[in-house]
Design brief:
single chain; 303 residues; six-stranded parallel β-sheet; 8 helices
Amino acid sequence: MKVQLPDKDCNLALLKDFADVEIIVTDLDGTVIDGIDSVRDNISNEIGYLQRNYRVHFSVATGRTYTGALPVMKKLQLKDGIPVALYNGGVIMGYGTDKVFSKQTIEPDVVDDIFEYLKDSQSSLYVYTFELSEDPFFIEEKNYTREKLYGMGYKGKKYDSNGMPIIWINSSRQIQEMIVAVLIEERQMDVPKKRAVMNYLHKNNMVEATSSGNGFIEIKGKGFNKGSIFQILKEHKDYKEKKTLAIGDNNNDIELFEKADISVAVVNSSKAAIDVADYVCKFEKGTGFLQMLRVMESAKRFY
C-alpha cells in the first residue's frame, strides 16, 4: 500500500524525512495549478515562508514552453538562475537568464515522417521551436526566449494552451528554427489507434514519447527528460548536495520521481505515477501541493 503524505495530526517521527529537503521541483499542469483563488494565495504565502525562514528553493519541470510556464514560475518565486526543465526536459535553462544547460532537438525529417504516418488519423501536429533572443531591447522581464508554434494538419485552433499563436504550415521544411517538441492531438484517436501511434513512436530511436493525460502525445528529442534536472542541479555550485523533493501527477513525471530523493504524487495522479512515488497526497492539484508545503513547514519546525 502506498504511503500517504503525513498530515498535521501525524506522529512527528513521520515528518523527519522532509526536514532537510532544500529543493522542491514541481510539475505544473495537474499539480500546482488550481483555479481556486484561496489555494493560490495560500501556496504563495507558504512558499514565501519556506524561502524566508528555511531557504527552501523551488524549481519547475514541465511540458510547457518557457513563455507558458513563466506566469506560474513567477508566483512560485523562483530564484534567478535556478535550472528549470521545459518541454518535458527537452530544454533545461536557468530561470530569468539566457543560460541554457541542455537542449534536445528533433530533426525536420522526423517530424515529416510522423506527420505522414498520422495523415489518416485526423489528428493535428503542433511543433514547438526554441531559441534565445538576440535583441536585448525586446527581452521581456525574465524571458530571454524566442519560442514559436507551428501547426500541421487539420486547422482549427489559433492559439495553444500557453496562449501562443499557431502558424499553420504544410511541411516542417518551412521551419527555420530549432525544433524542441512536438505534440500530437489524440482526442480523435480511439484506443487501438493511440496504441499504434505510441508503438510507432517508441520504435523511433531519435525521439521519446509520452502521454501526460492532457489530450496530447508529447514528443521530444532523445536524451534528457524531466528527471535530468536533478543532474543539472547537482552539478550547479549553488545547489549540489542539497536534498531534493519532486511532486507531480502523470506518466511524464515518472523520471522526475525516480531521480528525486523524495517523490510525492497528488491524488489525481496516473496509476503509473502513483506506483513510482514515495508518498501520495490526500488532495488533488494545487490543494495537494499546498498539503506538501505544509508538511515541509511542520517538518522544519520540529526538526
